[in-house]
Amino acid sequence: MRGQWGTRLGFILAASGSAVGLGNIWGFPFMAGQSGGGLFVLFYLACVAVIGLPVMIAEIMVGRRAQRSPVGAYGRLSGDKAMWKLVGWMGVAAGVLILSFYSVIAGWTLDYTVLSIRDAFAGRSPGDIEALFAERTGERPGGVIFLHALFMVMVIAIVAGGVEKGLERAVRILMPLLFVLIVGLLIYGTTLEGFGEGARFLFVPDLDEFDAGAALAALGQSMFSLSLGMGAILTYGSYLRRKDDIVATSTTISLLDTFIAVAAGMILFPIVFTYDLGTAGGEGLIFEVLPAFFENMPAGQLVAIVFFALLFFAALTSALSLLEVVTATVIDQLGWRRLTAAAAVGGGIFVLGLPSAHAELLPFWEDLFGMGFQESLVFLIYNVFLPLGGLLISVFAGWVLTRSASYEEFTAGSRLAGLYPGWLILVRFIVPIGILLVFVTTWAEMFFPDLLSSEGANE
Ligand code: PFF
Predict the structure, then answer these.
(1) What are phi and psi of 389, to 5 degrees?
(2) Please, what is the average pLDDT of the chain?
(3) Quick one: average pLDDT of 62-72?
């Protein structure tokens, strides 16, 4: 008998635990910073509403219908078509890749929790704090690898414990706490001198800055943040009860996730402008910027400790869903015991994550590909795996799943059954075409820059 969530709230908590994580607080601000701010945010919100929400509904439907993890689910509902099973495996591969670097960044949050406890930011200027990040992550590989290992061990232990006991309990207390802290910081942030400038950076799109890359970055980021496109939400959906409302639940999760991402940006950019730190900090952005904020507020040390600890837990609950997809697949496909599956898969992911923790392990990588190992993984996940996964799941739910099956799943337990025709149009046409458009323009721009620019045309 498959495990099931104890309550609908249990599912909402676990799914939002999966969605809310490093993607919101680490990823959203750093992508927004690198992609020029307002325009990225606008694209992002559009992607969540038009693509993310319908895809989330589709994933949960497919999972609950099939009662399987991705590979089995696509197999079962497509009449065992190899091509669709491959899509399931692609999602599993994405999960492995994501967790391998996700765990390393989660390790950084542990490091910063400990630094806060030791009051290590005291007396440092914002500039010094910014520089500290490179030191922490670049010059002490042993420490970074140790924290990566520690994090993976925790994830394995909880996933080995099973659906209800492990996942549900952990999320129940920590999610609301994180929410309250974010709202508190958001309110406090309005007192900063750079608040107006930060808000303008995030919400006023600069149309001159437009490039298709920002659109694909926003699409990838929205999929990543909502945990879509690789079967995580699908797998959680397979544990959902028939009487629960998929549409209302998906809407709640998407709203919550988006609120936290935008709020994180609204906390971060005013600090960037107040202390003149530069918006394009890349992957280290939150670690370079936030401690300076905490340093200058009342009870800042305590706030710093609680913040980084909660960020760590948010990362943990997301990582649980990543390992759960891969573990559930191994259990469903190979019949392994849960403990064996979680340990074997988690161990492999740890090893795969080593070059993300310490780039020197693959010294040739950067020369070969022009970006670091971890950066390459992020690039691949955001620009290829997740958008492609989202495209395929929407085609699957819209065209492969029979109308009667999708209607039944959409409406079972839902008061919003009347939205079915709208959803069907979205997953059949709007989502696939939208993703394809963003895909094609961005890749075209990347490989044939002359094609789209007016200068190229005049030459
Ligand atoms: N949504 C998570 C975050 O924003 O941090 C990351 C994630 C978890 C992505 C699970 C994909 C996934 F399947």
Answers:
(1) -60, -40
(2) 91
(3) 95
318 alpha carbon – ligand 1 mean position (Å): 5
Mean local confidence (pLDDT), 367-371: 90
Distance CA 123, CA 347 (A): 40
293: tokens are 């904020």
> By CB neighbour count within 10 A (0-12 exposed, 13-18 middle, 19+ buried), where does 207 fall?
exposed
- How far apart are alpha carbons 167 and 179 in whole angstroms? 18
pLDDT of res. 81: 96
Cβ–ligand 1 distance for 43 under 6 Å, the answer no
In this structure, which residue's CA is closest to atom 10 in ligand 1? 227
C-alpha distance from residue 354 to each of 124, 165, 176, 357, 418 (Å) = 31, 30, 33, 5, 49
- Residue 449: predicted pLDDT: 73
pLDDT, position 166:
55
CB 327 within 8 A of CB 345: yes
Q: What is the pLDDT of residue 182?
A: 95
Average pLDDT in the 377-405 region?
96
Contact 290, 132 (CB under 8 A): no
The pLDDT assigned to 3 comes to 67
Say if residues 65 and 404 touch (Cβ distance below 8 Å).
Answer: no
In a mutational test of the pocket of ligand 1, which residue from 20, 24, 55, 98 has the highest number of ligand atoms less than 8 Å from its CB? 98
From the CB of 73, is ligand 1 less than 6 Å away? no
Domain 8-454 has CATH 3.30.450.40: no
